[in-house]
Amino acid sequence: MKHPISLRASYEEGSPQDWLNSRDDVLAVFEFGRSPLQSSDPRHVPVALQQLGEPARLEIWRSEGPIKTGSWDCLRFAQGELLTMGHIALDLRTTGDMRECSRQAYDILQSYLRQSPHRWPLKIWNYIPGINKGEGDEELYRQFCLGRAEAVSIDPGASPPMPAATGIGTPVDEPALQLYFLAGSLPGLDVENPRQVSAWRYPRRYGPKSPLFSRATIMRLNGSSQFLLSGTASIVGHQTHHENQAANQLSESLRNVRSLLDEGHRLMGDARAQLDADGVLKVYVRRAEDLDAVRRTLEAEVPAEVPRLYLQGDICRGNLLTEIDGIVNCRPTGS
Ligand code: 3EB
Questions:
Q1: CA dihedral 158, 328, 283, 15 (to 10 degrees)
Q2: How large is the average pLDDT for residues 266-281?
Q3: Best mutation site among 106, 125, 143, 166 for ligand 1, i.e. most ligand atoms within 8 A of its Cβ?
Q4: Is 313 close to ligand 1, i.e. is its CB under 6 Å away?
Q5: How does pLDDT run across 223-236, given as a tens digit for each residue?
Q6: pLDDT computed for residue 223 by the predictor
Q7: The pTM is what?
Q8: CA separation for the pair 12, 68 (Å, rounded)
């Protein structure tokens, strides 16, 4: 028997209102190029990253219903049978500096999860205004990592389950720090990349507090497995490769993605993630002028049936030009 995929993610045309009104299994509607402060329904998540290329798409998440919506402090959520999507947007003009906003956002996230039936975060997306602004340890990305580490009291040395994550920069004049997540009733299976140093072991030179995330998590639910890929860049070991070469950075990122999928297969044994028409890939590109080179590279290396979306976003290291994340479905390998 074929088990249904527990999270169906896709890129679709249409208006957010139509998607929200027309079906009862919609967990989230992501709308790009909009401030997160302009959300209308808890399932509606505006994201302050412009889409590159045509036509305009929404990202739709569907999951087994009924879907219950609500709010917790400033967090808004949509809770299905198996999975919860939640999001937080904090206004940096009124809440405090980046470190304080990040700490508060993660405090709220954790207090929400503690009382939710879906208390395990599987993946967290962080969209950070002006991520590369500031020198040295004052850089906003590092300040964001500091606030997150202050709120999240987990000791990576004890190998706790850690969510996968994406951390991407939104425009410097965007007022809101945004975080959205997928959570379930069981922790994911963490996957690290043999080609990369784990993020929580990054050396001091990348900032006073290492980022806390796993390279990917596998969620096993209802007999099906899905791979949630963290933001994956052209980093080998802990070092940036192919500085100033967007296309080569994308190839290296794809090598990292394949290495993660292989590692996941080794861990699962009986299933393997497959880049196919049922998954989604998001490609973040720092400079719009690199879109053509990045797109050509992706088209040469990833089958055309795999849905992809290009977004203009800054990457957390000033020398990175592109990054990929995605949701990939797994198939039984029959062994
Ligand atoms: C990297 O591999 C790129 O701070 O949550 C990727 C995914 C990155 C998540 C985060 C940062 C984060 O280090 C940066």
A1: -120
A2: 95
A3: 166
A4: no
A5: 889 999 999 999 99
A6: 85
A7: 0.97
A8: 23
- Measure 141 CA to ligand 1 centroid, in angstroms: 10
- pLDDT of 328: 97
Distance 65 CA to ligand 1 centre (A): 32
**How many Cβ atoms from other residues are within 10 Å of residue 328's Cβ?**
26
Residue of minimum CA distance from atom 10 in ligand 1: 167
In the numeric block, the tokens 């400079």 are attached to 287
Q: Ligand 1 centre and the CA of 165: distance in Å?
A: 7
Q: Do β-strands 239-240 and 235-236 pair in parallel, antiparallel, or remain unpaired?
A: antiparallel
Helix (H, G, I), strand (E, B) or coil at 121: strand
Q: Is the CB of 210 under 6 A from ligand 1?
A: no
State residue 74 phi and psi, 5-degree precision.
Answer: -95, 5
DSSP letter assigned to residue 237: B
The DSSP bridge partners found for residue 219 are: 226
